[in-house]
Amino acid sequence: MNLKPIVYKIDDDLNSLQILQEKLENKILEKEVLFDYPTVYIHDWKKGEGYEVYVGESNNVIQRTKQHFDQSGDKSKWQYQLKKKTSSLYIIGYGHFNKSFTLDIENRLMHYMMGAESVKRMHNKRTNPQNRYYPDCEANAIFRKIWNNLRKKDEVLFPAESEIKDSALFKASPLHKLTQEQEEIKEKIIEKVFTALDKEKQGQLIFIDGEAGTGKTVLNSSTFYEVFLKAEERKKDDLQCYLIVNHDEQITVYKQIAEKLGLKNKDGKEVVCKPTSFINNHSMDEPVDVAFIDEAHLLLTQGKQSYQGKNQLEDIINRARVTVVMFDENQILTTEQYWEEQILKGYREQAKESDNYFELTKQLRVTASDETISWIDDFTKKKRISDIPKDKTGYEIRVFSQPSELEKAIKEKAGEQEHKLSRLIATYDWEYSKNSSMEKRMKKYWEVLIGNWHKPWNRELEKDMERKQKRKNKTLSWAEQPQTIDEVGSTFTIQGFDLNYAGVILGPSVKYRDGKVVFDPSASFNEKAKRNRTLSDGTMKKFGETLIQHEVRVLMTRGVSGLYIYACDEELRKALEEAVR
Known about the structure:
It holds the Pfam family SLFN-g3_helicase. The protein has 581 residues and is of the alpha/beta class. It has 20 helices and 22 strands.
C-alpha cells in the first residue's frame, strides 16, 4: 500500500478522467488508492483574475464526477462552469483514507482555500470538521504533503501555508474547527435562534462575553454561517440574517467572507453592514430575523453626526427578532462607546433571565503559558509589573532600550516566512488626523517621533502608492499590506486582528510611578478617549484613564508568538528592564 498522498491534476472532463484510468492500468497501487478507496477532489475554473472552486470527497470519484457533469446543463448550478475550458480537476488519494479522514481533509482544504486571495468563490455549502478518528495522528503531516503537492501544480491557487495562515480571511473564517467550548456555545445559540423564530418571538438577546483572543470572531462567523445552512435545511427561504460590525478593517474581511461563500439575504441586501447603515435601513415595524454583532463593544452609546440615536445596541435589538452579541468591555476605546455600569449590567441580566448568556474563557490567540498571560493581565489590568516569566512554550517577551532596536527586531521577525505578519504598533500619543489636507501639515506624514527616531503612522505610506496597489490593498487588513512594515499601527487598525510578533511602543501616556503603572490622558492625542462623556443623569465625567488602559491591553494582546516592548517613559522602561532580569 502506498502511504504517500497521490495528487493528479487533469482537465475537468470525462475524457480526461478516462485517459487517467488508462494511464494507471500498470500502476496498480495508485489505481487502487484513487479509484477503490475514498478520495478528495477539487474542481476549479478561472473567473476573471481569480478562481472559483468546489471541494468534495467521495467513495467513488468516477461516479461522483459523472454526477457533476450530468448536472452541468443547469445554468443556475455551479456544475455548469465545468464546461469552461479553464476548468481543472484535482484528485487526491492516500492509502489510509477513510470517510472521516477524507471529510477532515476536505474541510481543511476549504478552510485554506478560503484564505487564498486568488479564490473568489467557494461553492461548497456544508462544513465537515471532524473529531477523533483513526488515524487522525497522521492528518497534519499528510495534509501538509497534499498542500505542497498542490502548490507544485498551481502556486497561485495554492499559496504558501504561512501566507494562508497569516491572512485575516483565514483567521476569521467560519470554516475553523471550533474548540469544545466554542462548539457547545454555537450549538446552543443556533437552537435558541430557531426556537425564537419558530415561536415568532421578538427582541431576544443572546449575549456572549469574551476577552481579547478568546475566539469571539470565529464563533461569530461560524454561527452566522451555520444559521444560513440550517435555514436552507429547514426551508426558511425568506430568512433575513445580518452580520454587523463597527470597524472598517473588520467589515472588509466579513464582506469578503460573505462574497466567497455566496451569502445573500432573499431581499438582495448585503448581509454584512455597519450598525448605522443597518439601523437606517430597517424599521421596528418590520424587524429582521437575526442580527449578529461582532465587536459589540465598538457600538455607539451616544449620538454623533452620522448617528442620531442614543444607543446602537438598543436600536438593533428593536429591529431584529434575535440579536447575538459578542462583547469585551476591556476593548472599549472611546467615550462614545462607553457603557455605564448599570446599563450594561441590564443587558447581561436580560440575557441571563432567558438562559441566553455565555462566556468564552479559553485564550486562543496568545500561545503562551498561564504565567505569561498572567503577566500581561497584571500590567494591563492590575497596573503592576511583576517579574517576566521564562516561557516554556516559546512565547517571547522582550524589552528594548531604544525604538530603533525594537524596529530592527520586528523587521528581522517579519523577514522570516513564518513570522512575516510582525509589525510595530503604538499608543495614540502622537498627533494624527486622516482628514487634514497636506497644506495644513508641516511635514509629509503624520509620524511617531521619539528623539531622532521616527516612523509614519498607519495609512500614511499608501498615499504615495500607484492606483493598482491601492486597489489590491483594499482587500487586505492593515498588517497584511507590505508597506506597513515601515509604519506604526494604532488600536484603530489592529483591534480585532492578530500579529505574529507585536512590537508595542508605549508612549508618554503610559508611565510608572511609585511602583504602579499609570495611564495619563494628558499625554495622549486620543481626543475620543480624553473628552467628557455626558451620563444618563446629565452629569459630565471623564474616563480617559480607563480608556487608555483598554488601549494598552488591546495592543499587548495582539502577538501570537511574542510581545516586544519599548517604553518612552524612563521609569517604566527601567521597571520593565528590571522585570526581565
